[in-house]
Amino acid sequence: MRLGNLIVMSSALLLLPSCADRKVAVAEEPAAVVPASAGNSAAEAKMMPQAGNSLRVFFWNAENLYDLVDDPLTGDENWLPGGRERWSERVLADKIANMGEMIRAENPDVIGLVEIESQAVVDRLMREGMKVEYPTSIADARGDARGIRAGFISRFPTVDRRSHQVWNEEWINEDGKHEVTRDILEVTVDTGASGSARYVTFLVNHWPSRSGGEIRIGWRKQAAAVMARRTAELFAQHPDRLVVSMGDFNDELKDPPFTEALSLLPPGVYRGTPDALSFLAPGFELLSRPFEEQGTYYWHGGKVWNILDHVLVAEGPSLQRGVSKSFAYRPGSFRVVRDARFEDARGIPNNCSVYGRRDAGDESRCMVGVSDHRPVVADFIY
Question: Is the pTM higher than 0.90?
C-alpha cells in the first residue's frame, strides 16, 4: 500500500458556497418500501438480494451511449443517423449487446454508469443487453453540453433520488466559453437488511475531463468539494447512513483533486475521527497487481494506462463506531473487469466509434466494441 499518498486536508473545503441540488423523489427514511417488482412473478422476486448476501457494485463509463433521437437542447448531432459518428440502430444495438454480455458475466447488484444520453438507452441496456428487469433504472435529469449524464441500475428499490450541480457560472474554458459539466447523481436504495445496512446512498460521479490544462484540475477539486459537502450533509441527517461514491473521476489516486481535496485511505485503515472528507479507496489494492490489470483507461497520446475509475467508501460515523459491520467492503475484491473478446491484441478495449473507419457507412457494425474505459467492480458484505 502506498501510504505516502495519504494527505489530509482541512475541512475548510466544506465552506465553499453550496451548489444547486435538485431533489427528484422524496422518501428519506420510509417505514416501509414496496419494491417496484412487487406483485410480479416469483422469478422477478428472486432477483432481490437476501440478507447475508454480498453486494456487488459495478461502475462503467459507457462512452457515448447515445440514443437515436435528436435532442434540440444538447449537442448530440454527431451521434445521430447521418451525423459525423455515423451512429445507427445497428451500431447502438451491437454496443448494447456487447456491454450487456460483460455486465451479465459479473452479475452486479448495483450499476453506476456515465456517458449515457437518456432514460431510453439505460432501459435498453438493462432489458436488451443485460436481459433483466430490475426495479431501479435511472438516467439523471440533466447532462452536459453534449447531453451525456450519469445513470444507475439496481436490484434494490429506490427510496430517494437527487442531483447535485458541480459547475458554476465562473467556469470559463480555454476557448473563453462557459463550461457545463455533469451533475453528481445521488440514489439511495433499500437493501432490505436490518440496522445501519438497510439504506445505502450511492453517488455517481463524472468529473471534468483531464484535457484543457490546469483550470480543469481546479474544477475537479470543486467537484470533490461538492461530493464531500453532500456526504457531510448525509451524515448530519443520518449518522448511520452508508455512502458509496463511484465514477470516472478523471484522476488517479495520487492526483491533486484527491490528495488535496479529500483524504483517501486504503481499505482497513481508519483515521479514528469521522470526517466527510475521508474515503476508503479500494483502488489502492490495484497498485500491487500486474500493470496490465491496473488501468481503466488507455491514453493513446501518452501511450500509458491510467486508473481513472474508482469506487470510494465514505468513512462516516457508522464505519468509525463499528456498527456497520453488517455492511463492509470485502478486501481484495476491487478489480478491473476485462474481456478479451472486446479488446485488441494489446489488451486495450475496443470502442464503437466508426468515425474515420474505412468501412464506415450505413452498414457499419460494432461487433467487438464496448467502450474506451474498462469497468470496475467492488464487493460488499451486508
Answer: no
Distance (Å) of CA 28 to CA 22, 112, 158, 187? 14, 21, 10, 11
Is residue 262 included in any domain, yes or no?
A: yes
Burial code of 225-253, b = ≥16 C-beta within 10 A, e = fewer?
bbbbbbbbebbeebebbbbbbbbbbbbbb
Cell of 111: 450499476
How far apart (Å, rounded) are the C-alpha atoms in residues 372 and 353? Answer: 10
Question: Strands 54-65, 110-116: parallel, antiparallel or unpaired by DSSP?
Answer: parallel
List the domain range (segments joined by +) for residue 350.
52-381
Render pLDDT for 9-59 as a digit per residue (tens, 0 to 9).
Answer: 333 333 343 444 555 443 334 333 333 333 333 333 334 444 457 899 999
**Structural domain total, the chain:** 1
For 285-338, how does the pLDDT look when each residue is reduced to its tens digit (9 = 90+)?
A: 999 888 778 999 999 877 889 999 999 998 776 555 544 456 788 999 999 999
* DSSP letters for 165-214: ----TT-B-TTS-B---PPEEEEEEE---SGGGSEEEEEEEEPPPSTT-H
Instruction: Give buried/exposed letters for 82-100 (b at 16+ CB in 10 A, else e).
Output: eeebbbbeebbebbbbbbb
